[in-house]
Amino acid sequence: MNPSSPETILFNGKITTLDPAQPEVSAIAIAAGKVLALGSDAQIQVMATADTVAIDLHGKRVLPGLNDSHLHLIRGGLNYNIELRWEGVGSIADALAMLQLQAARTPAPQWVRVVGGWSEFQFKERRMPTLTEINAVSPDTPVFILHLYDRALLNGAALRAAGIGKDTPDPPGGKIQRDANGNPTGMLIAEPNAMILYSTLAKGPKLPLDDQINSTRHFMRELNRLGVTSCIDAGGGFQNYPEDYQVIEKLHADGQMTVRIAYNLFTQNKGGELEDFQKWAGIVKPYSGDSYFRQNGAGEMLVFSAADFEDFLQPRPDMAASMEKELGDVVRFLVENRWPFRLHATYDETIDRALDVFEAIDRDTRFDDLRWFFDHAETVSEKNLARIKQLGGGIAVQHRMAFQGEYFVDRYGKKAAEHTPPLRKMLEMGIPVGGGTDATRVASFNPWVSLYWLVTGRTVGGLPLYGESNCLEREEALRLWTAGSAYKSNEEAVKGALSPDMYADLIVTSHDFMTVADETIKAITSLLTMVGGRIVYAADDFSRFDTPLPPASPDWSPVRYFGGHQTPQTHYALSAASCAAHTCAIHGHHSGHDGKLSRWLGLDNAGKQAQFDNPWALGCGCFAY
């Protein structure tokens, strides 16, 4: 085919390009993995040859592919097939019915794992499931349920499998809830850090290598179904380089990547952080790789003493006195070696101290055009935004407040939540901002939940956090999830818009994001997803273009039966034939608490809140990221 002839054209659509020269067109031509031309149906169709694949969009909206600037895809993919997802489920009745059905098909010694992505406020019952309910639906199969960054619920079988009994001491930084007789109830509490949660989760059986490969492919396909074509992987606890990258590197070598990944390297050794980055600097260089798998620098963990774990049910942590020295040693090395970096920072107090370090280094070792940014920055002040801007930094925001906003309001008040984070101020000041989720262990990987939060300022439970002044217009929010994220990996010249010579990464959406009702944003999926001009997912009117994956493995995988992200309209409770609404624990048991977890745990007043100076001194919490 002539290079000037399109391999594929899409026509009869509403294509949002984010290209100022042609903001909306009806047709697009694609060749050699890139956008060849944009225009009207007539202008593009005349370019077609006998070999061109022509796809009628039937008036559907097309957007540039979404790019999650903070995702834990590499680690999350290894476990995706063995995790039951409560993301999007509308009731405890359905959540527990799913749990009961999955427990019945999960073979020993495997566990049923619900690992993040849900909030008690998404359920119509407005509460969490109780331990009594969990044990009733799964008396024999171990069950581990992670709730945000604050606690995990384990049934009796999981307590036994994890070796947690009456004589098990509380680990540093964590609490095993006990009954009046000293027996563990099944609730593990991050008080004040999450090591107890993630070290317990790590005791569950892992998948063999072939299943991990299959699992990662299915996770990427689920992201494709939701419109994600690129991400920046933020590393994570127990994600050593290069040892723990063999699965993603094999998929890359075999041409089976359907999400482009730029990956950051996350230090693994408390006290040995500088040595980690010195070692990695001798193995790999920033931006090395190709368009599907490339290195993106350091972080999100640079040093453990600078990581302010965010659990809004606990007081804000103060960082260790050693933070400045340890962070300075690592950042100076990174700047000297021109390694871009990102740094986890929830609170303004942490950001303030980190900026002191950065500015001191910049005085003698200039940052110049080095790409760097803070992750999260929920409570960053305008003063520190100005300092970030002056030093050429950026911010990656995630929808963590959509899952923890109620707890933030409980602790700090509604007024403090109105600009947490200050989205509008960041953009007004011209700070580069990228959108993302911080999935998979706490928030959902669904980008549309994040876009809903950016546009409406509401949590998944419907609580309005922000006024109109801190909410974004739809195109602004979309730009954070496209061009804004591309900037974080130094790829804004090839990603983030549908312009000639840029990557043909695009999605055809089930609903028109630009015009649909606010509440419908959360229900959007992609009907056709292209990465580099290649169709990696297709459904409904476009299903003839789809190439399905092999079934999720192992054969008892929750993904085979429930898929990934759910919808509130999906009902599983009726499928649990053993349930009866008037007697079943799933439907009839409402004892426990009233939806305010802080009240349920007796954390309503300062006297009952955990007090600590620096949770990271108590043990590694890197599992949380």
Automatic annotation (TrEMBL):
<dbReference type="InterPro" id="IPR013108">
    <property type="entry name" value="Amidohydro_3"/>
</dbReference>
<dbReference type="InterPro" id="IPR011059">
    <property type="entry name" value="Metal-dep_hydrolase_composite"/>
</dbReference>
<feature type="domain" description="Amidohydrolase 3">
    <location>
        <begin position="54"/>
        <end position="537"/>
    </location>
</feature>
<dbReference type="InterPro" id="IPR033932">
    <property type="entry name" value="YtcJ-like"/>
</dbReference>
<protein>
    <submittedName>
        <fullName>Amidohydrolase</fullName>
    </submittedName>
</protein>
<dbReference type="GO" id="GO:0016810">
    <property type="term" value="F:hydrolase activity, acting on carbon-nitrogen (but not peptide) bonds"/>
</dbReference>
<dbReference type="Pfam" id="PF07969">
    <property type="entry name" value="Amidohydro_3"/>
</dbReference>
<keyword id="KW-0378">Hydrolase</keyword>
<dbReference type="InterPro" id="IPR032466">
    <property type="entry name" value="Metal_Hydrolase"/>
</dbReference>
